[in-house]
Specification:
Elements (H helix, E strand, L loop, with lengths): L2 E5 L3 E3 L4 E8 L7 E7 L6 E6 L6 E3 L7 E6 L4 E6 L8 E8 L12 E2 L3 E6 L1
Parallel strand pairs: 2-11
Antiparallel strand pairs: 1-3, 3-8, 4-5, 4-9, 5-6, 7-8, 9-10, 9-11
């Protein structure tokens, strides 16, 4: 069964840090670009960051650039999202998703999704 599982969500104070993990089972992540998306209450799901299958290309939403870092360890079949200098507006459910395309597209274009992990940033 193809599955993505996110972990690492928690409640942190503004200015704090978290590292999210996205681990695949049932398939090898090497061939997939992996994206992190988030959805806050009452808002649409939005792209946060994406990393290519090789890890050679990354991109970030302007709202997180300079604060978040995406990385992957293909040997562990895992992609990470290091989140620093967290702000209350970062509060959301964070999802990872995979696509066989070279890079991530909009949420509708992703092939596999995890169930999400909740990040809450208190002010």
């Amino acid at each position: 069964q193809l599955q993505l599982v996110e972990s690492g969500g928690d409640l942190v104070h503004s200015g704090g840090s978290l590292r999210l993990s996205c681990t695949a089972s049932g398939f090898t992540l090497n061939y997939y670009a992996i994206g992190w998306f988030r959805q806050a209450p009452g808002k649409e799901r939005e792209g946060v960051s994406c990393i290519s299958g090789s890890g050679g290309s990354t991109n970030y939403a302007s709202s997180v650039k300079g604060r978040f870092t995406i990385s992957r360890d293909n040997a562990k079949n895992t992609v990470y999202l290091q989140m620093n200098s967290l702000k209350p507006e970062d509060t959301a459910v964070y999802y990872c998703a995979a696509t066989f395309q070279a890079m991530c597209g909009p949420p509708s274009g992703m092939d596999f999704w995890g169930k999400g992990t909740l990040v809450t940033v208190s002010s």
